[in-house]
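Pipeline run #58 for the internal structure catalog. This entry was flagged by the ingest filter as a single-chain record with no existing model, so it goes straight to prediction. Upstream metadata was stripped on purpose; only the residue string is passed forward. Reviewer on rotation: M.T. Logging verbosity set to normal.
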Amino acid sequence: MRYLAIDHGQKRIGLAVSDAGGSMAFPHSVLEAGPNLIPQIVHAIGEERIDAIVVGLPLNMDGSEGPATVAARKFAQAISAKVSQAIIFFDERLSSAEADWKLAGVGMSRQKKKNLQDAVAAAAFLQAFLDKKKETEKPNSISAPQITRLETPQLVAQSALDIFSACFHQAIEERDVFFCAVSGGDSPAEFFKLLATDDSLDWTKIHLFWADERGVGPEHPDSNFYLAKNTFLSEISIPADNIHRIRAEQTDIRRAAAEYEQTLQKTFSLSPGQIPEFDLILLGLGADGHTASLAADTNTTDIQDSLATAVFSSSLPYPRVTLTVPVLLAARKLMFLVTGSHKAQIIRRVLFESSDAGRQPVRSLWAARQKMVWLLDADAASLLH
């Protein structure tokens, strides 16, 4: 896979490319800001046969985002509107310093070094990206999920949007449709608000499901659908047929689960016994270790012959409908959003202490840990060392 890296600046933009195998990064060119900038980048993408684009994020040293980061994201959106390749954001805080160090001993004039600096900086963070990607793909990386710690819930939300966008673009390139499921709770609200701002997402090609739902109506404040509707669904243009909510408000919650299973079978065109393969499932984590509505005091983690099931738990308010473990395990990526100090204890237990699915239902998904991304804010990760 061949990558193009973009080091965005107010006056100059540095480009770097990888080899076809995605192992080595090389400086490519430095472009001047101006009306021809994006057409030049689009030309380079075609000429170099680029598969994906890595845009450097100039974060502040404390990990927060400033005006330069906002400008880089805006520039990436402008490029995304012109190309079909996925755009991936990567921390490039120290790339300029590394470029200065690499050029320090080179025998050329100061002006020539300055002209090359942005391309060398782009190559520096592209190499870091490639190295990190290679590390996560090693066979022994299956022993632990990917864990990303961010300073604030807002940065967690932005990182979640980056992952969502990358998964979307990859799915569209490979299958021309994107299947995702979302959850409720406090943690995803900021992420949902950002979803409505990403102009690169074609919602006509997105099928939206829910990982679980409480047994309340769609206008109830405790409804997972209601949260999505109020934060982003009301702001986007998505076909009604692409919204697959769980109708858990009906009296017979088991019937609601059976109907949702039929919806999954129809939308994914499944044969009997087949499991749907979501491109991305967004999950949270309860203080008791439950995810979706897999509850510790029920047998939901043991169900293997259904795609969705009713949940009756004394530890969770309301009867519920949840996707089952086989469906969650089959997803191409599982993204967990966890924020707040009240989640610090369970995060430590789930991620770094031995457990079993009976006590912490999320551990029933550990067979798919190589497909997990955990996005934690500073408070949720405060007990991790």
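catalog note: The mean pLDDT is 87.
catalog note: The first strand starts at residue 3 and ends at 7.
status: ready for reviewer M.T.
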